[in-house]
Amino acid sequence: MRAEAKLGLILLLTPLLLWLSLLILIPHVDMFLVSLRERIGVGEYRISFANYLTFINEPLYLRTFIRTAVMSTLATMITLLIAFPVSYYIAKIARGRVQSALFLLCLVPFWVSELVRTFGWMILLRETGLISNLLQWAGLVDGPVEMLYNDAAIMVGLVYTSMLFMVVPLVTTLESLPDEVIEAGYDLGGGGGAVMREIVIPHAAPGIVSGCIVVFMLSLGNYLTPIMLGGKDSLWFTELIYSQFIVRFNWELGAAFGFLLLGLSSAIVWGMLKLTGQSLEKTMG
Amino acid sequence: MSPDLECKNLTRRFGDTLAVDNVSFSVPRGSFFSILGPSGCGKTTIMRMIAGFLEPSSGDILIRGKSVVDTPPNKRPVNMVFQHLALFPMMNVADNIGYGLRRAGVAKPEIARKVEEALDRIGLPGIGSRKVNELSGGQKQRVAIARCMVLEPDVLLLDEPLGALDLKLRERLKVELKSLQAAFDTTFVYITHDQSEALVMSDRIAVMNEGRFEQVGSGQDLYYRPDTAFVAGFVGDTNRWSGRIERVSGDEMEMRTDSGMLMRGATHGRSLSEGDRADVFVRPEAIRIAHSAEELAHFDNRITGKVESILFNGAASRILVQDSSASGEIEVNLPQSGEFSGLSRGCEVQIGWSGAQGNCFAAGDA
Amino acid sequence: MTPSIPQPRIVTLAYTGYVIAFFVFLALPLVVVAVFAFNDSQFPSLPWEGFTWNWFFGSERPMIGVFHERSILRAIGTSAFVAVLVSILSVAVGLSNAFLFNRYRFRGQEILYIFMLLPLVIPGIVLGISILVFSSRIANGMWDLAQWDIEALRPGLTLVVLGQFSFIATISTLVIAARLQKFDRTLEEAAMNLGANRITAVRTITLPYLGPAMIGAFVVAFLMSFENFNTTLMLVGSDAPLTIAMFDRLKEGSTPLLNAVSLLLMLGSSCLALVMIAFQRKG
């Protein structure tokens, strides 16, 4: 390599390496090391798995962890089910200006802070909220109904917040499927179901995978939605992390929790990529 | 025996535009029928109506005597080879070919057998497990046809399937398609804007323009006996002059072109009268070239001119001759005998042709 | 199904109905937030007490509007300050990364690329705490070693900027790299053929070509930073950016003041989004 090119390479590599090492790699390694510390006295620590043992032995922690994982999976599936027909409509049924307008409309909520979106759902769902009033007005219920502060409300919030991240990859992959190929599926005798199963869904697989990965990850790591829409006992794992760090000041346990969350999310992402034979570069990049 | 495909007064409107205007035709069993026309003439609309992807505004489509207008596309006994072939990229070759059989509920071993058979038939045995994108252009083409043919359709529709291929491959596949059609003995309906494809492969050709069939006939009919000015101009290369008819007597006529040349020709029974505006079409190969005027004495049209340029193209070489008396430019085939190989730009040459070889149409036809 | 496949009317109608219902679902919370910003009441809920601008311009208790509420205004300023810094950093690093991955081939490049994507799949809150833990440990170490108190390493705006940058840089890299990928390198060669040196060719040809992508990346980075919550929550000090300030208020109970702020946020981000779309069209 010529000297000039080598210099260029070094100059361009420096910011990348600084960023990835100082803000990503080392902090995570450090967090892992902190999670392995056990406090045995004032300012005295030793290396042990005590924090992870606490996690396993304390039913509340473990239960919250599993609950978070299950609810996030559920939220991902619901988001996919709701988003797929809409994405298909945008990509394959709508044409021209309607198509771009609908797509743009899907992006709108994304440009608004998650806090605002969640706030909107609070206004809608609470006892004095719009839906409760609407139901009373329609005579379907006698008194005010509280729809906030339960798991269903969390689910609505998660699905709503994640919708965009499912719709965009789905629309992009579905748009790349030529109409001709769908028509060929019918022309050769396929019905709607067969064409969907054998042609559309296999084609959309990369979009489905990347949408699911992002939605799952966002749900798992969400903090606002469960806190604002969830009830007293609908704990989310991120709440535990926050309270260990900020309220209890037990960074060792908090770091262990953080690492567990990271592990879970990485495991699911990796598992989905392997299961469907996709790679991170293709789905994300 | 009813024809394989029959369209009766087929019409299709898109808003105010009439894409297909009252077209009727029938295609006999086992023949190769082409619809030839420039892009936007409505040929794709006809094809999509036959396949079931568009509903006719009025008219009827019959396949083996039965109307299919109310049959959804997946139930019609026609299959289609799409413009870009539309092979399913998510399946391998065998699954592509077996797709329609699976839809029809054929048993698995039977499907495997039929797929093998189809692959043999298209001369590509053993490629069943290949991925679609590993195939060459010609192989894809054949797989797309096999995918339809395993379903034994009454009619196979082909929507310019050679359009995306390069010239060499296109030439080869023309011949191949024709022999595949003979091998499968199925009715092919082929649409194209490439006249050479239509002329080489078809038993009968319909020339289409602005939603209507201008003429239906064999390649020879269209080439030598065009019904309309559009066909004369569209099929094959031709010289074309516009002018005013000065004299008509019996089958003979004379026309003065706008550039001042006098053309003699034949009416071929078309109604033309003095004073009409008209167009005369003469093919470059109908025009003879000579060094001296005497050699052309038997032609009723003779012109002395200068070679304007030489368009060398091997066996299809031509020259452009500038008429010395008027400003017309005439395309003339260069004989292959080598007699005129010394010709260069600016040389004076004599050209002539028999008026009966040309075709004259009253203007406004095209 | 495509428009060319005939479907029973009822199916088409049901499908269209579903899509409409979906967009109502998308719009509902935002519309509700916007509408109640004008409710002449202490609570953003029914009954409707009449229309008022007070939650924007009111200056007397109990209805102090956004434009007279110091803490909210300051939080907006803080957010904007953070967002600008994050955007500048992200676009600069993103540009450098795009060139690195597009123009150079070196050992370990693929691994580095995958590594570069990772911040997208790390939960924001984990990013936040890992940076918090790391920086605090360095700060403590410095104090123990030399009695230096490095304020920047304690929770505060510096850490917020770094934390947001750590994942927004990935996004800006992807946006700029995507455009650079489409660049026709013969244009640079043509410039050099016409007498430019390599640096000048990049400066006069390639960078202007990347302009729309850089503006796009800047706007996306700005918006993502402005509305970031998870990472910021873990790193914030005494100066709270807007999302954190609103969150703290919301925990105490909601007033239409928050609706008014939200509506302004929506308008602001729509304007930015429109600006970006306009630039993208031009480019």
UniProtKB/TrEMBL annotation, chain A:
Q: Please, which domain of life does this record's source organism belong to?
A: Bacteria
Which one GO biological process term can you cite for this protein?
transmembrane transport
The cross-references to InterPro entries, in alphabetical order and at most eight, read: MetI-like, MetI-like_sf
Positions of transmembrane segments: 7-26, 69-90, 102-124, 152-171, 207-229, 249-273
Q: Where found?
A: Cell membrane
Membrane topology type: Multi-pass membrane protein
Q: Which Gene3D superfamilies match?
A: MetI-like (1.10.3720.10)
Stretches assigned to coiled coil: none
Family (UniProt): Belongs to the binding-protein-dependent transport system permease family. CysTW subfamily.
Q: What is this protein called?
A: Spermidine/putrescine transport system permease protein
Q: Lineage of this protein's species?
A: Bacteria, Pseudomonadati, Pseudomonadota, Alphaproteobacteria, Rhodobacterales
From TrEMBL, chain B:
ABC transporter domain location is 5-235
- Which PROSITE patterns does the record cross-reference, listed alphabetically? ABC_TRANSPORTER_1, ABC_TRANSPORTER_2
Kindly state a single biological-process term from the GO annotations of this entry. Answer: quaternary ammonium group transport
- Give the record's GO CC terms: ATP-binding cassette (ABC) transporter complex
Q: Which UniProt keywords apply?
A: ATP-binding, Nucleotide-binding, Transport
UniProt-recorded Gene Ontology molecular function terms: ATP binding; ATP hydrolysis activity; transmembrane transporter activity
Q: Show the InterPro entries listed in the entry.
A: AAA+_ATPase, ABC_SmlMolc_Importer, ABC_transporter-like_ATP-bd, ABC_transporter-like_CS, Mo/tungstate-bd_C_term_dom, P-loop_NTPase, Transp-assoc_OB_typ2
Q: Name one Pfam family in it.
A: TOBE_2
Q: What is this protein called?
A: Spermidine/putrescine transport system ATP-binding protein
Species annotation: Aliiruegeria lutimaris
Could you read off the lineage of the organism from its UniProt record? Bacteria, Pseudomonadati, Pseudomonadota, Alphaproteobacteria, Rhodobacterales
Automatic annotation (TrEMBL), chain C:
PROSITE patterns, from UniProt? ABC_TM1
TM regions (residue ranges): 12-38, 72-100, 112-136, 156-180, 201-226, 257-279
Principal localisation: membrane
Q: Does the keyword section mention Cytoplasm?
A: no
Q: What GO biological process terms does the UniProt entry carry, in alphabetical order?
A: transmembrane transport
Q: What UniProt keywords apply to this chain's record, in alphabetical order?
A: Cell membrane, Membrane, Transmembrane, Transmembrane helix, Transport
Which Gene Ontology cellular-component terms appear in the entry?
A: plasma membrane
Would the keyword Cell membrane be found if you checked this record's keyword annotation?
yes
Q: Tell me how this protein sits in the membrane.
A: Multi-pass membrane protein
Give the protein name, as stated in the record: Spermidine/putrescine transport system permease protein
